[in-house]
Amino acid sequence: MTEASMRAPKALSPLAKQWSRISPALVPLFAVITALIVSMLFILITELLVQGHVDVGQVLNTTGTAYNGLLEGSVGVTLSNTLHSDDLNLAKQYIAASDKLTSRQLTIAARVIDETAAAGVTNVTRYAQILDRHPDLTDDQWKELGSAIPEIAAFGDEKLLGLRSLLEGLGKLQRADANALVENVAAKDSLTADERSEINDKVPAVSSMSDADVLAQLKLIQVNGFVKMQRWLEQLDVLSSQELSSTSPAAQDIAVFSALDMTKVRDWAKMVDNLQKLGISDLTALSEQLRIVKVLFDRKLFVDTDVKNALANELSGILQNKYIILRPNNQMLIDTQSGFTGTILAENKTPDDPSDDNKIDAVYMKLGEKALLFYPSTLESMIVRSIPFIIAGLAVALGFKAGLFNIGAEGQLYAGGILTAWVGFSPLFADLSPVLHIGLCIVMGIIGGMLWGAIPGLLKAYTGAHEVINTIMLNFIAILLVDWLIKSTNPIILLDTSASVPRTPYIVDSAKLPTFNQISPLWFVLAAVLVLLFGLWQKRDAIREKPTLAIRPIVYGILVFVLGFFLAWVSVNGQLHVGLVLMVGAVWFTEWFLDRTTPGFELRTVGANPDAARYAGMNVRWNTVLAMALSGALAGLAGGIEIAGVHFNMTPGFFGGVGFDAIAVALLARNNPRNMIAAGLLWGALISGGGLMQTRAEISIDLVKIIQALIIMFIAADAIIRFLWRVPEASAEEKERTLFAAKGWGG
Q1: C-beta atoms surrounding 541 within 10 Å
Q2: With the CA atoms of 231, 237, 241 and 242 taken in that order, what torsion angle do they form, in degrees rounded to the nearest 10?
Q3: What are the φ/ψ torsions at residue 43 (nearest 5 degrees)?
Q4: 692 and 554 inside one domain
Q5: Is the same domain home to 413 and 505?
Q6: Is residue 596 located within the same domain as residue 726?
């Protein structure tokens, strides 16, 4: 083998070549997947700290539950069990052995079973044995005994028995005389002959004891109380009659259960006895099944009010005619078994309001004994929540492209939002038509953000002041300025004096962005036709030569039409507004501006190398101001859309970190405007699904923040991801596309 052949690179297989071609574009996706996998370590560490050991199966189950909750809480997709007759076997066994039960008694039985399981079957069994051995003791006597046991154990059984003669002797005296004797003598260090003689006369039982022993015992009685120690002695005798000491396990059980509601303890004991006779050991499953039966009664699926008869005669018919999907917290989705898929309508809680009629709650697909569920309202909410992240992420990315680190998106959001709110509720614009009023609100939001973004741009361009410091300071100024404008009472500026909390008045209806369920289907048809015609016109010359190129514009038109109807269908709560269209337009405009225009090219050139741009005749100062102004305009657009489309008023502390999250979204999208949609939707999904993930898996909400932090870390240090997933090293072109703030810290 020659030296040249040894130095030649190894030929790649076709599969490796394909992976090398497509994998670089998937680095952000790999970062997300890796972050989700690494997050399992935190669940493992938590279990280790709490339980002292690690159950791998439990960790995997908790992780699966957490991510299933995250998926359901974000995009509304989840997998659920369906109800079958065998799922209620324990309930049927328990009910068959019971007397006549009503549906209300099912709840009581389930509660008793839950309490029994919480107390522990073994513990309750011991409690029952103790109660059975002493049926003559009343509940009050048990409570008195149980409360005395810890005190007796702390004092000592033998020590207390040694005081019996003195306590019994004092007990024969009048209480006042006994207390006086204890108080007078216990305070002394020694006894005179007369004092000892008096004690012997009143308490003959101690005549054989030494003075020192008498004094010591009287001091103990004085410290603990004569009456209390008499009670201790009585309760110790009760224990002794049961052949128990205060420190015996049975006595400790008495101390535990006597502190509880004795009626409940007896109910638990009776329940354990019944379940043991039936051979039922899984109390949690039984309780859950009883509650399912109760819900079936509540949903009026049974006719017979007798639970035993209803289960025996009606259950099989119900399960044949109904498709019942089980949900957490004893929720159910019920539909007729019409086919492989189905739609479940939400309960009409306001019969007088026709807008609630035929409102979709969930869509399902049958998968064997499970159901794949989709909640349109959840997806609707997540999309609405993601819109400001996407637009604000665009704002940050545009600054990055110019080599500027715009930390001020938060303040620019406030600047745009407050102007939109003012235009929305001000009587000056109340008579405008909806089209003009909405347009003015959005334009004012853009102007507010643009002006606030231009300030640090001007300071950077003409004074050299660093944009990071300036934008951070302007964030505080904007937030506190809005706070003052809203809270000011002398004079009243933007405060709604009729509100119970500081906020602006609500914007009028003509200023609110319409939602997709309010839009006529003709608009979706029109949008599809316009997209089709624009695509055909744009490629008209190429289509003349090759007609098959017309397929892509046609497909785009069809997709716009289908997407419009899908968004209208998803908008079941009337929340998904046309700000989504403005967001898509902002993404298109940002990409077009950066890649297809001369100012965009100059802006990117200034960001990559200001010196080279200046040498080429480009105005670096102007591009710096332009970049920050456009970045602020996008952030202001996000603020305006939130006011006009979601909240309809503004309060202090309104945006709560959206501008700072936008930095992470821009990093996740690698500053690519087109990728910003996926990055923003992911960020919105993590935030939207975090609460349900926490509830379902019983883990800390901070796990979502950990996942977000890991995603950012893996995006920033993509060498880790490239190594783990065998992705080729970034090319010079890729590095140029992801360049941000490379020159920012250098001035």
Answers
A1: 8
A2: 60
A3: -65, -40
A4: no
A5: yes
A6: yes
Amino acid in position 295 = V
- The C-alpha angle with vertex 551 and arms to 548 and 553, in degrees rounded to 5, equals 130
CA dihedral 581, 586, 587, 588 (to 10 degrees): 90
> Within a 13 Å sphere around the CA of 227, how many CA atoms are in the beta-carbon half?
6
Which segments of 546-578 does DSSP mark as H helices, in order? 551-570
Calculate ∠ Cα 64-67-70, nearest 5°: 150
Kindly report the pTM of this predicted structure: 0.83
- Are 299 and 103 a contacting pair, CB within 8 Å? no
Same domain for 146 and 255? yes
530 and 491 share a domain? no
- Burial (CB count within 10 angstroms: exposed 0-12, middle 13-18, buried 19+), residue 501: exposed
Burial 175-196 (b: 16+ CB within 10 A, else e): eeebbebbeebbeeeebeeebb
CA distance 565 to 521: 7
Those residues of the chain that have pLDDT short of 50 are 1, 740-747
Structural domain includes residue 353: no
Range of the domain at 447: 381-512+577-746
| pLDDT at residue 329, as a whole number | 82
Strands 360-367 and 370-374: antiparallel
SS3 370: strand
Q: 11 lies in a domain?
A: no
Give bridge partners of residue 331 from the DSSP assignment: 327
**Burial class of 462 by CB neighbour count within 10 A (0 to 12, 13 to 18, 19+):** exposed
Distance CA 24, CA 446 (A): 35
Supply the Cα-derived Rg of the chain in whole angstroms. Answer: 38
**Residue 441 sits in the same domain as residue 472:** yes
Amino acid at 309: N
User: Per-residue b/e over 320-337, b at no fewer than 16 CB within 10 Å?
Assistant: eebbbbbeeeeebbebee
pLDDT (0 to 100) of residue 356: 56
Q: Do 527 and 622 sit in the same domain of this protein? A: no
Residues 600, 564, single domain; the answer is no
Site of tokens 């796990």: 703
| Per-residue confidence (pLDDT) for residue 745, from 0 to 100 | 45
Residue 80: what pLDDT?
92
CA separation for the pair 223, 217 (Å, rounded): 10
Q: Is residue 76 part of a domain?
A: no
Total structural domains in the chain?
Answer: 3
**CATH code (residue 432):** 1.10.3470
The reported pLDDT for the residue numbered 1 is: 47
**DSSP-assigned letters across all residues of 186-245:** HT-SS--HHHHHHHHHH-GGGTTS-HHHHHHHHHHHHHH-HHHHHHHHHHHHHHHHTT--
Q: Which of 310, 278, 264 is nearest to 113 (CA)?
A: 264
